[in-house]
Amino acid sequence: MRAAAALVCLLMPVACGAATEAPSVPGASSGPNAAGLVPLPCDGSMPLAPVKRRYCDRDRHFVRPEARDALKDAATRLAVDFPGLVVRFIDGSGPEGIVPFPPHLSHGDGRQLDLALYYTDTEGRPISGVPDTRKWGGYWPAEPPRPGERIACPQGRAGRAHKPDPPADRPWRLDEERTRAMVMVLIADPRVRRVLIEPHLEERFGLWGHPKLRFAGCQAARHDDHIHVDFY
């Protein structure tokens, strides 16, 4: 009898009150913190990653659980359509859930996240990641209006909202196909409330007037070097 009981405990430790520990799974979702926020994955286990590691190291990668689910779904879908593609995030919110989240005019409650755009070289070959320019890590380079395209702020932007155009001889160009595909996947998701983008890109992508695409205004930093996604 004792031998039989020992065999049961060996095969079914929970039945004998033994504690069990679930194996660690790379990229496994963690539960919400006290502010109701969760971290985005930083371990490279899926096609969703920070532009630079410092966004995770400095706790700037927190979002609502629903936002994280929507981003994971978008990243998975895009990786099927474009093998090897990674959705690269920039600033989300801090873990405390305080609004605004400096230096942003919003962010902080986990419902906003900035995403990097995609680029090619001058021959049209996709670039992996974001061109390593200056120190902003995903918030530059911009993709300025082409001649004849809509100029949202002809008088420019003041203060920290101002960003220069990239040099004409830059060795990269906007990857319009992949960037448009990312925007399309996001605005098709009912969990996404809106996407902030510059008007000339909205028009260039053939999406002018879409109810989920908005212009942030001339008081905000330009959104032709990244897009801002608002989630419900």
Kindly describe this structure.
This protein has 232 residues and is of the alpha/beta class. The chain has a single domain (32-122, 143-231), classed as Muramoyl-pentapeptide Carboxypeptidase, domain 2. 21% of the residues lie in helices and 15% in strands. The chain is built from five helices and ten strands. The chain has helices at residues 2-11, 54-57, 65-81, 176-187, 199-204, and strands spanning 38-39, 48-50, 62-63, 87-89, 112-116, 119-121, 172-174, 192-196, 213-214, 226-231. The strands form four sheets. A four-stranded mixed β-sheet has the order 5-10-8-9, with helices on one face. A two-stranded antiparallel ribbon has the order 1-3. The protein has a two-stranded parallel ribbon with strand order 2-4. Strand 8, helix 5 (199-204) and strand 9 (213-214) form a beta-alpha-beta unit. The longest helix is centred in the N-terminal third of the chain and has 17 residues, at 65-81. The model is unreliable at 1-28 (pLDDT under 50).
